[in-house]
Amino acid sequence: MDYQDIELLRFTTAGSVDDGKSTLIGRLLYDSKSIFQDQLDAVEESSKSKGFDYVDLSLLTDGLKSEREQGITIDVAYRYFATPKRKFIIADTPGHIQYTRNMVTGASTANLAIILIDARKGMLEQTHRHAFIASLLRIPHAIVCVNKMDLVDYSEDVYNGIVSDFNAFSSKLGISDIQFIPISALNGDNVVNRSENMDWYQGSTLMYHLETVHISSDYNLVDCRFPIQSVIRPHTLENQDYRGFAGRIDGGVFKPGDKVKSLPSGFVSTIKTIELNGEQIAEAFAPMSVTMTLEDEIDNSRGDMIVRENNVPEIGQDLDVLVTWMSTKPIHARTKVVVKHTTNESVGMVKELKYKIDINTLHRIENVEKIEMNDIARLSIRTAKPMFYDSYKRNRQTGSIIIIDEQTNETIGAGMII
Amino acid sequence: MSNYVINHLKELESEAIFVIREIAAQFENPVLLFSGGKDSILLTHLAKKAFYPAKIPFPLIHIDTGHNFPETIAFRDELVEKLGVKLIVGSVQEAIDKGRAKEETGADASRNSLQIVSLLDTLEEFKVDAAMGGARRDEEKARAKERFFSHRDEFGQWDPKNQRPELWNLFNGRKNYGEHFRVFPISNWTEMDVWEYIKLENIDLPSLYFSHQRDCVVRDGVILANSEFIKLKEGEEVVNMTIRYRTCGDMPITGAVESEADDLEKIIEEIATTRTTERGGRADDKRAETAMEDRKKQGYF
After folding, report:
1. Which of A411, A414, A406 is nearest to A337 (CA)?
2. Which of B49, B164, B275 sits opposite A37 (nearest CB)?
3. Which CATH number applies to A314-417?
4. B8-193+290-298 adopts what CATH topology?
């Protein structure tokens, strides 16, 4: 196995209470042989001490003491496993309504979302929320796992009913790639190994999907965006004039010799070198961290952005955003906030609350006075200085902001620019 | 398939470098917590890459328990010299002498939890506002819930129920006076990733990580190096064994594995087939089911 040449897939799992999410993750880890003997021993022991007559794989993902006491997940937990084809990072997020913020957090970096539905219960309010958040955060791929098929006698009719219910709802959402898989996480049907109980299902297993879904076009390779994190100036004798711009590519493909423009100054120059640790890089693209030098001496600093001369982002002080609210403190119009966007930061003012979205019906609720924890709403923010941004639809990195409380410094909102 | 894809090690490297550069940009007095273990050596290597051709723009802090492997200290001093970076040493012995920390007694005594006092004292003394460490989420269940930017109150404590949400690659390092951050740039790396990357980049490690002969004591199934810090219990005897270490903590608590793996290739092969977690040999995690969670809340790494 050539471990060094595999891709990384980040996915999130969203499920309602008791629909077997922890068991599914436990199953993926167990069947892919990512569980170590000492972890398994610990789980076997605690299953036994709880009086279970099987090994409860969900215990593998149990985290903090307070969670085990309450039998719930409080926060996003990250899990790791690898197969010969890919390395996976799971953002395991709880499904309760009060934890929408965690779901959004997990979804923000994911290439793929697994949405779990209990075959006995079908679509629930929480399923709507999970699907909506996956679409809102523009996770490129979704897999709907209809779980606990063993408890509905592996019925094709039950499965088909849920698939059509889900499609009816999701047609309004615009998730581009949705796959459906009937599974039993407890027994392992169609998770890693094909089920012998569902001959009627011709599709592939969950693991096969995870290993083969096409993710190389998940980043924007068209619009060149390079936000500057810091300026590297060694101040040594051999590097007296060295001025490198450190940052991570957020979009497009940059090459030495490219004509580029620096924002906000508008100065135009040519890329001299793209390097990391002194090694030259021929082509740089998202999500690579590099150091860039230019032919001309341009006084760039943190928060500035290097782009192509003929393809610039929006430049302005008025941001129209969809936000998910993450603070117990509600927000009203005319509130002062701090906006963080790429490596840029500015104070700003919430100008107008436009509407909230009812995530069950997807209807708009107009004339809102305030936005509260877990609300999803559209608002406009005026920043004190110009920002260089794209729509979130076009670029998840240059189209996203976080909103910070000026007094407490807490992150209170996550915004996607329209 | 498009050519514009980077493999998982490059993606993890890129993510870690982005985070390290954010730390340098967002904080006034950042430091790198250097334990001498492979993860902090990796972190130092990534920091070097992040700022090249400039030097690493922050000091390394080493909390010296006085129970370190001599190999660790020698390696540390050589690395610091090579990189031209500043080293700050916080001493647990000093904290004990000053009465700030109390030594545990008995055969299983360890200075592991005493490090918390020295660490917090050192961070305060140097007015550190961001301490980056090489902790990884795959190591331990309490660490699975850790953020990249982990906010600590003025007492250095971690509150798992009230962590800042972390979205996209937007890291919020704003803080109030007296508070600080712990930052974990290699959060998303697994043990295998670390070894693969060390091999890929040809990173030097202390000899402890490779197979060697050593006088050991087997205690509760854990292979411990025999040293002046260990008191033999009744019935225990010193045996010469062929071992190596998977992690490097203090001498009296870090368990070794019997191994013939004397190069990176063999180590990777060994890890690919191993059936226990790397912290499985850490006596400090075995004290209670929630040992790590409890220490983290108090301000442990």
Report:
1. A406
2. B275
3. 2.40.30.10
4. Rossmann fold (3.40.50)
